[in-house]
């Protein structure tokens, strides 16, 4: 068992080489800029991971299934990853309390599964979030988050009383981060209402004498900007007015006497000009570092002349999506930073064309799928596809895999209408985009972490082989952590699984669980000689949450009929197709015991049945010797290579559960044991070495009435989710088509993986249900080179039989 604090240094550089990406730093004056070097070292050590989760819909009624596909990529180049093997999914309520949790296996950059939405859930807005174990080392703001709405049609809607308040969230953001007296700055602002959307709130900036300094008004989505020069000795506040004429005051950022400001503006010829001003008379140089998702693009140095330094950036050198522009002073301390968004040109084009003509109910729909890059070249792609009925409950799908990877995953908080910044063509787009960069700019790391000379060791390691079950060993009397204590974890059953670990300096242990699927009964042990110590297992889900806030839930009375029309199909599906809805795709797991093929195997039914275990050993198990002494039984295993019995105690297992008391071993009823296996040599289990293994397997794998030690920790534990098969009836024959079973499906089709071939082609087909109306098809996909794309379309289903 490796150390709990195993770093990722040995993994990340190899992974980046595998990605085949080489970053060329365009340093102008200082090719070996130490800040750039430290950033590259940080990127190689702290690999960034991203998840995108495509759900079949965003609105559900309790009792339905929520289907999902996870795309797992590296955070710099957005190429599919094969590092972490487990993703964690949670559904959080408005108070960030988890109401549903699951663990999902990842392989080849993807994973999939489903969640049943129980009828105990209250109606409301929820937040679906996903992350890996490695991502727990960073802020939960990095996790994937998506709001979903669940309405429980079996319970009376308890809607909150919507108060008419002035609860607007208004914030001001100086460009670069600072307001410095007597230096002109661009100040961006954002005004958000209780529903989480931008509001049009005009306002003024007043000084302490109530003189109006500047007037402002939002440009789009509640965001805007103005130019402002704070005067020495003055204080400022903002006064805003809503649509009803009500005024309110909000604080304004403090003004510094000394410091730096920065301004980024278009300079023509596909260039950006960065101007840095200082309030101090100094000629010391300032540094500019530009990077796109931690991949350094440019490192430059300029002296301050007349308290001003100017840098030029080629926009062609910038990576697509969000780039960071950071200014450092002469002591290499970050003093200003802002973001710049480059609209992507590299993109995946997805075309879904229906080829089956006009559709009626219970009829086959056929779609031809084509995936290409921006040049029209075929692109092999892994797609997820959802087809569902459009009604007044189904909201417009906002946000997709490309907008998430290139925009929302690198910004804090909720982005209103992210598609706008990728698809809108009006002249307003550049200004609106830059306002977004100014108001929601942030980074996935702290510069103090990057620049520190001695990097901290990470608390969570990547789960490269399987799920980690973590725990802690403490002194039962003092509660202090205990170092160097051996711990065991077993999964009782015929499939013999045993894991071992040793507590570190902080008392922490972890067990790496390979091929660990479905609900399990766990038995966690400490060695009985450590009877004063206590073992506790930790929650595998992260208990820190982002600052995201869901809007107040409101459900208009006008949607009562559409809700009923959605609830009835759900009930019909659960009543008539329940058996088909609980079909699972069980993964193949290795059923060989953890110790492999035993040196000696005995099926007890092939031998004379003895009533006591001592006779079994004596009569036909030559590799085991049991002796009864004054203090009880001792058991030794023959070391076959050395042809002598080993002096130490073997590891004895009953259905995979360790039994440390040899008297208890000898008390096992042989008539309940189906087979006995012996390893007649030294065997290493994690950090421990045993003088052989004796493994008993009962007929039912249920310990045969044996009760583990009272201090053993017994726990029900949910392993990785066993994937559920998506079911949809087919009407290939007249008999099937004329079936009287009602088919009221509103979700006609879902697949987490539809792969196009080398020509970028694929075909999908499914049957419509008894529901007529308008249906939407949504596709999200990513190619091996990181190109991502999404497509939506719609088609009609007629109730008239042709």
TrEMBL record:
The residues forming the signal peptide are 1-27
Q: Any idea which UniProt keywords this protein has?
A: Signal
Report the domain of life of the source organism: Bacteria
The protein's name is MG2 domain-containing protein
- Organism of origin: Larkinella arboricola
């Amino acid at each position: 068992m490796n150390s709990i604090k195993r770093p990722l240094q040995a993994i990340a550089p190899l992974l980046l080489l595998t990605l085949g990406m080489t970053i060329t730093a365009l340093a102008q004056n200082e090719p070996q800029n130490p800040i750039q070097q430290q950033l590259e070292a940080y990127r190689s050590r702290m690999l960034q991971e991203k998840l995108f989760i495509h759900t079949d819909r965003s609105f559900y009624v309790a009792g339905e299934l929520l289907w999902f596909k996870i795309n797992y990529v590296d955070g710099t180049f957005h190429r599919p990853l094969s590092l972490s093997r487990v993703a964690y999914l949670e559904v959080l309520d408005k108070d960030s309390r988890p109401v549903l949790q699951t663990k999902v296996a990842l392989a080849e950059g993807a994973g999939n599964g489903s969640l049943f939405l129980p009828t105990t859930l209250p109606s409301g807005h929820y937040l679906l979030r996903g992350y890996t174990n490695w991502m727990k080392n960073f802020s939960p703001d990095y996790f994937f988050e998506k709001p979903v709405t669940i309405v429980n049609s079996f319970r009376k809607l308890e809607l909150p009383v919507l108060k008419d308040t002035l609860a607007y969230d208004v914030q001001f953001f100086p460009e670069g981060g600072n307001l410095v007296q007597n230096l002109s700055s661009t100040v961006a602002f954002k005004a958000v209402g209780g529903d989480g959307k931008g509001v049009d709130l005009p306002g003024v900036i007043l000084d302490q004498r109530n003189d109006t300094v500047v007037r402002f008004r939002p440009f789009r989505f509640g965001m805007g900007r103005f130019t402002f020069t704070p005067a020495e000795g003055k204080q400022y506040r903002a006064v805003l007015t809503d649509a009803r004429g009500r005024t309110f005051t909000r604080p304004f950022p403090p003004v510094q006497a000394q410091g730096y400001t920065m301004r980024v503006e278009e300079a023509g010829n596909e260039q950006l000009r960065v101007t840095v001003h200082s309030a101090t008379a100094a000629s010391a140089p300032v540094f500019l570092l530009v990077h796109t998702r931690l991949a350094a693009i440019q490192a430059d140095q300029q002296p301050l002349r007349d308290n001003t330094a100017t840098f030029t950036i080629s926009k062609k050198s910038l990576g697509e999506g969000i780039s960071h522009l950071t200014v450092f002073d002469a002591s290499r301390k970050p003093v200003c930073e802002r973001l710049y968004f480059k609209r992507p040109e590299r993109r995946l084009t997805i075309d879904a064309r229906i080829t089956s003509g006009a559709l009626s109910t219970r009829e086959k729909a056929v779609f031809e799928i084509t995936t290409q890059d921006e040049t029209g070249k075929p692109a092999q792609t892994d797609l997820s596809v959802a087809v569902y009925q459009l009604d007044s409950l189904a909201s417009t799908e906002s946000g997709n895999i490309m907008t998430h990877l290139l925009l929302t995953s690198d910004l804090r908080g909720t982005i209103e209408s992210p598609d706008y910044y990728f698809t809108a063509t009006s002249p307003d787009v550049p200004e609106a985009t830059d306002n977004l960069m100014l108001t929601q700019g942030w980074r996935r790391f702290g510069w103090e972490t990057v620049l520190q000379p001695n990097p901290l060791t990470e608390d969570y390691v990547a789960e490269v082989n399987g799920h980690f079950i973590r725990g802690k060993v403490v002194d039962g009397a003092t509660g202090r952590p205990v170092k160097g204590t051996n711990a065991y974890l077993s999964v009782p059953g015929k499939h013999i699984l045993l894991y071992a670990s040793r507590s570190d300096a902080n008392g922490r242990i972890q067990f790496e669980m390979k091929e660990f699927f479905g609900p399990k009964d766990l038995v966690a042990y400490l060695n009985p000689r450590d009877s004063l110590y206590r073992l506790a297992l930790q929650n595998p889900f992260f208990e820190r949450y982002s600052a995201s806030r869901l809007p107040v839930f409101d459900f208009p009375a006008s949607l009562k009929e559409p809700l009923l029309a959605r609830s009835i199909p759900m009930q019909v599906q659960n009543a008539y197709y329940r058996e088909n809805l609980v079909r699972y795709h069980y993964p193949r797991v290795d059923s060989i015991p953890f110790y492999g093929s035993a040196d000696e195997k005995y099926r007890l039914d092939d031998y004379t049945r003895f009533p006591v275990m001592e006779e079994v050993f004596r009569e036909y198990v030559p590799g085991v010797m049991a002796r009864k002494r004054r203090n009880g039984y001792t058991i030794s295993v023959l070391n076959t290579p050395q042809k002598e019995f080993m002096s130490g105690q073997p590891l004895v297992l009953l259905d995979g559960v360790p039994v440390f008391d040899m008297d208890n071993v000898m008390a096992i009823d042989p008539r309940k044991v189906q087979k006995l296996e012996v390893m007649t040599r030294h065997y290493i289990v994690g950090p421990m070495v045993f003088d052989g293994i004796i493994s008993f397997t009962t007929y039912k794998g249920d310990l045969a009435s044996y009760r583990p030690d009272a201090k053993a920790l017994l726990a029900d534990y949910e392993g990785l989710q066993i994937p559920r098969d998506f079911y949809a009836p087919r009407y290939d024959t007249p008999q099937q088509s004329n079936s009287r079973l009602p088919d009221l499906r509103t979700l006609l089709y879902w697949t987490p993986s539809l792969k196009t071939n080398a020509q970028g082609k694929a075909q999908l087909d499914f049957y419509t249900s008894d529901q007529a109306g308008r249906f939407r098809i949504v596709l999200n996909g990513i190619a091996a080179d990181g190109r991502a794309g999404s497509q939506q379309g719609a088609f009609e289903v007629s109730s008239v039989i042709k």
